[in-house]
Design a protein that fits this description.
Elements (H helix, E strand, L loop, with lengths): L1 H15 L9 H15 L9 H18 L8 H13 L3 H22 L10 H85 L5 H30 L7 H9 L9 H10 L3 E6 L11 H21 L5 E8 L3 E8 L14 H11 L3 E6 L5 E8 L4 H12 L3
Helix pairs in contact: 1-2, 2-3, 3-4, 3-5, 4-5, 4-6, 5-6, 6-7, 6-10, 10-11
């Protein structure tokens, strides 16, 4: 486009001399044509090499002052080159020098054209007008350059915001995957541990008992069925959270969100202990009666406490060994909920495959509501898990826990 503009201006400038060729001699016409080429040809690179184009056009104008005492139509090229330098020039010093040249060019031209042989008599007002015109061209280009720089900065900021948004989305997706993995671990690991223990016990009895105890076998099957049914229900709740995008603007949406909320609370601990006892583990529960009331403990803390107890009991079934006893104590102070799960099992001598994430998951649950958890073997034998959870988490932890438990994937 720049080359086409430069060629078009050169053709128009050359044609303008056809009407004046009778008034000029051949040498003057040829000189004017050469100067016009010097004024307009550099405009072909005015965007890619603005400093070079302005320098060449300025040198042609300087040659015009020396060789020709009259204006030529191609002088318009100086204004275009001045605009290009201010708009596209990469060097601030060159742009400032171009402004000084533009301010002086009009005065020098008017002084040169005011000679007696000139066809147009010039004076100071004419020079000032020409200088102002050149300076306006420079200012126009400078404004265009500044606007373009602002748009580029805005574009870069938008790109940075997009990258930040994508990074936040990836972090949120990773957090959601971690939450789902933790929920599935708590649900499946606990329920399958109970099912495996019951099935192994039933198989052992069927193989080694002197006679078949129909009532004992029936109770074992009922325990397996109830445990599997409970695990299936909790898994459906979890999958419902992933599948049901719920707008939080209507009462019906809030009801649906409550329906698909994660299950488990302090009030469900007695039922959990019953399933543990049915699996053959001697378990005792000491739960303050006031803690079963929903208003006394926040939903986030209640769920976290339930999952910590559930995972602790699962570890008892898997690692404590035969004959182990476990005691679950849930107490409360003014602002805190205190959990203690202690067993009399193998403790540090318990076998493990090294691939479990139960302790990590329990610590994450405690930290998600602003609490802390300590787990390890007891000196007198067995294993102990103690946790302190705020009864009503701070807003930041409550929002984090709510996002983890109730948001869709």
């Amino acid at each position: 486009m720049d080359r086409a503009i430069a060629a078009g201006l050169w053709i128009m400038s050359s044609l303008s001399w056809i009407g004046l060729r009778s008034e000029l001699d051949a040498s003057a016409a040829l000189l004017a044509l050469a100067l016009g080429t010097g004024h307009l040809a550099p405009l072909a690179v005015r965007r890619t090499r603005p400093t070079t184009a302005f320098t060449l056009v300025s040198l042609s104008c300087l040659a015009q002052l020396v060789l020709l005492d009259m204006p030529v139509p191609s002088d318009i090229g100086f204004l275009i080159a001045t605009h290009a330098l201010a708009s596209y020039g990469p060097f601030p010093l060159a742009r400032r020098a171009g402004l000084l040249v533009a301010a002086a060019a009009g005065l020098l031209g008017a002084w040169d054209w005011s000679a007696p042989t000139a066809t147009m008599q010039g004076d100071l007002p004419t020079g000032m007008t020409l200088s102002i015109l050149a300076v306006v061209s420079w200012l126009w280009g400078d404004v265009a350059r500044r606007r373009r720089e602002v748009l580029e900065r805005l574009h870069e900021q938008n790109q940075a915001l997009r990258r930040d948004r994508d990074q936040r989305a990836r972090i949120a997706a990773q957090d959601e995957r971690t939450r789902i993995a933790r929920e599935m671990h708590d649900i499946v690991a606990h329920s399958l541990s109970v099912v495996v223990v019951q099935a192994d016990g039933a198989a052992y009895v069927a193989q080694h008992a002197p006679q078949w105890d129909r009532d004992q076998a029936l109770a074992t099957l009922h325990t397996i069925a109830a445990t599997a049914r409970q695990a299936l229900a909790e898994t459906r709740h979890l999958v419902g959270v992933l599948r049901a995008p719920v707008p939080a603007t209507t009462g019906a949406a809030q009801g649906l969100a409550a329906e698909y909320a994660p299950t488990g609370s302090l009030g469900a601990l007695p039922e959990l202990l019953d399933r543990i006892r049915a699996a053959g583990v001697q378990a005792r529960l000491r739960l303050a009666p006031e803690l079963t009331e929903p208003s006394r403990v926040s939903e986030q803390t209640s769920l976290a406490a339930y999952r910590i107890v559930q995972e602790s009991l699962t570890n008892v079934i898997k690692h404590a060994g035969p004959g182990a006893q476990v005691e679950v104590a849930v107490d409360a102070s003014v602002s805190w909920l205190h959990l203690a799960i202690r067993d009399t099992g193998l403790g540090a001598a318990a076998p493990t495959d090294g691939f479990g994430h139960g302790l990590i998951g329990m610590r994450e649950r405690a930290e998600s509501v602003g609490g802390q958890l300590v787990a390890g073997p007891r000196p007198e034998g067995g294993f102990s898990v103690t946790a302190s959870l705020p009864r009503h988490p701070a807003p930041a932890h409550a929002a984090q826990s709510t996002d983890e438990e109730n948001e869709t994937g």
